[in-house]
Amino acid sequence: MKKILYATFFISLLFTSCNPMDDVYDELNLQAPIISGDATFALTDDDYDELGLTYGSFNSVDEAKQLIPGLLTEKYPVWGKGSSALVGYKLYVGSAPGVGDYTGAVTYQLANSDYPGASDNAIGFYPNENPDDYIGDILASQISDPTEGQQVLVRYNQYVGETVLGVSNYFWADFMDGTLAGFEQKSIVGDQTWFGSNYGAQIAGYANGIRNANEDYLISPAIDLTNQTNPKFQVNQAINYASGRLDLMTVLVSSNYTGDPTTADWDTIEFENSPAGTSWSFVLSEDYDFSAYEGETIHIAFKYVSLGEPDNIAATWELGSVAIKTPGVEGETITTKLYYNYIDGEWVISEGVYYVSDDDFDSMGEGPGQPGQYNNFGSSTPPDDYLPTFLGLKYPYAMEADELFVIYPYYSSSSGAQTRGNLYSVVDGTWLGSQSVINTELQFGHDGSTWVPDNTIKYALIRSDYNLIGDALSGTYPSPAASASNYGNFDRRVGNAAYWSDSMLVEGFNFLLDDIDPNAAEGQKYNMSFAIYNGAAGVESLNVIKTGGIWVQN
Question: 507 and 545: one domain?
Fold first, then answer.
């Protein structure tokens, strides 16, 4: 036991007493021995955190080349020149080519006046009307100067089942899809603004533990009531943390708004059914009489004010939906989103793309933590957990290698509502999405002072390699070639008939590397490790690089 303890103490002293030994080497004018090693590993979650990469991947190869050397220095502080590390890491490569054509497309939502039944105040196509018979002409009249190949996401309603004359939603805005539904956000004071969320259009003056001063408007598009009679206005909203100051949240209407809410004349709308300001429960207002605005074009606004010091009042206001009802066509409607493509002067339905609908999300589960809860995907409901099964059910006869762009709403807590998508392909009978993050590797070498990206591959010759080189060079170097084939090593005794010089070895390695790596790229490096005989058996190495299509000593 004492011998083991003494040995342990000696080894510890050898590897921890660096500075004193450096002084000794300096005094004796000797070079300190180089400690080198080889490592192969993949970065862990802790490694990404240490590098400040909270998403767990690199954004580019250059970023990996820049950050990984510092990590290697921490992991292997005593390794020096000649060391190598093959590091596996995750690289973000982005969406599949073509996805951006759809996710970046503008959305055209059909106005009531676009529908064939507009004279009836119909808010959608009738059941017996084929939307495609009309949408191409509608887009042609509404979108000026389209470009060849341009994509547009068209949103329209269609009645299903029986329709009757009654009351319809002449104007309707649904904020529960995570967007502002075409409303305009205007900030007068403060940094907090209206934004789309899974809880509707939302604003709160409370941020980073502080109640901040704000004045913000959420303003509707222009609503033309020129030919409408007896319009009614209704809103679904929730207010919490109002501290008794509901007067700081007002619903307004103007007939002379032109872009600056501070210069327009606004009427205040006061509902009987409105939130108390103390809960997250939504309250649907009564139908408020808007007959005073018949024949006018109006804007509706939701004005939010929060107070900083010393009052410290900052409520949270959420809007679920807004409607203006007029006499029209009653009936159940469904909303469809469909891509149209401008080709050869015409708007036609896009092929090879599918937009995930609310019904589709509901089919994936409507409970907490399921896509149908809010009708979108998110970090807790990633699309790849659901879409392969969904697509398999929807397209049961899809063939191998079939492809489809799938576009969907996505909600991120950091960036809000988004439109995202991916290219899905059938692989071995299963729909698989193109990977935005791939696993790859980088080779690093130590140049004596730091770690640098290095594509050097370390290769140790095996017995058959000596035979291959010997056969290839038997006519050029008969004795050395025979010796290599017979003994499985290279004779390095200068002056011996079987002697192998560095230049002869490089010639041999050309034959070997062209055999084992025939597609090596220009600039590829190899560190060739081989058995030698110089009076005693040993091992040497030699570096080569592919230059001009041949391997030369490096």
Answer: yes
Instruction: Give the C-alpha separation, 205 to 502, whole Å.
Output: 75
CA distances for 477 relative to 13, 482, 493, 510, angstroms: 50, 8, 15, 15
Contact at 8 Å (CB) between 32 and 25?
Answer: yes
Q: Are residues 12 and 51 in the same domain?
A: no
pLDDT single digits (tens) 137-173 = 999 999 999 999 999 999 999 999 999 999 989 999 9
Indicate if 13 and 23 belong to the same structural domain: yes
Output the six-digit token pair for 78.
């005593």
How many structural domains are present in the chain?
6
- CB within 8 Å of 431: residues ≥ 6 apart: 387, 388, 391, 392, 395, 398, 404, 424, 425
Identify the DSSP state of 373. Answer: G
Q: Which pLDDT tens digit goes with each residue over 378-425?
A: 989 999 999 999 999 999 999 999 999 999 999 887 777 889 999 999
Task: Assign residue 304 the CATH number of its domain.
Answer: 2.60.120
The CA distance from 188 to 217, in Å, is 8
Single pTM value for the model? 0.63
Three-class DSSP category at 66: helix
Altogether, the residues listed in the chain come to a count of: 554
- Mind listing the pLDDT tens digit for each residue in 285-297? 999 999 999 999 9
Count of C-beta atoms within a 10 Å radius of residue 1: 5
Taking alpha carbons only, the member of 449, 353, 457 closest to residue 407 is 353
Cα separation of 247 and 77, whole Å? 64
Nearest residue to 470 via CA among 507, 503, 501 = 507
Question: 272, 306, 324: which is the final residue of a domain?
Answer: 324
Q: Which amino acid is at 60?
A: S
Same domain, 2 and 62: no
Residue 293 region, left (φ>0) first, then alpha (ψ -120 to 50), else beta? alpha
342: its two tokens: 């401008």
* Claim to verify: residue 365 and residue 444 sit in the same structural domain: no
Alpha carbon separation from 168 to 17, 120, 213, 285, 470 (Å, rounded): 86, 10, 39, 17, 90
| Claim to verify: residue 407 and residue 529 sit in the same structural domain | no
Domain, as residue range, for 247: 169-324
Burial class (CB in 10 A: 0-12, 13-18, 19+), 130: exposed
Rounded CA gap, 84 and 165, in Å?
Answer: 79
> CA–CA separation, 165 vs 169, rounded Å?
12
Look up residue 442 and give its amino acid: L
The candidate with the shortest Cα–Cα distance to 150, out of 183, 104, 114, is 104
Same domain, 117 and 247: no
Q: Which two tokens stand for residue 218?
A: 């959420």
147 and 212 both lie in a single domain: no
- CA 328 to CA 33: how far, in whole Å? 91
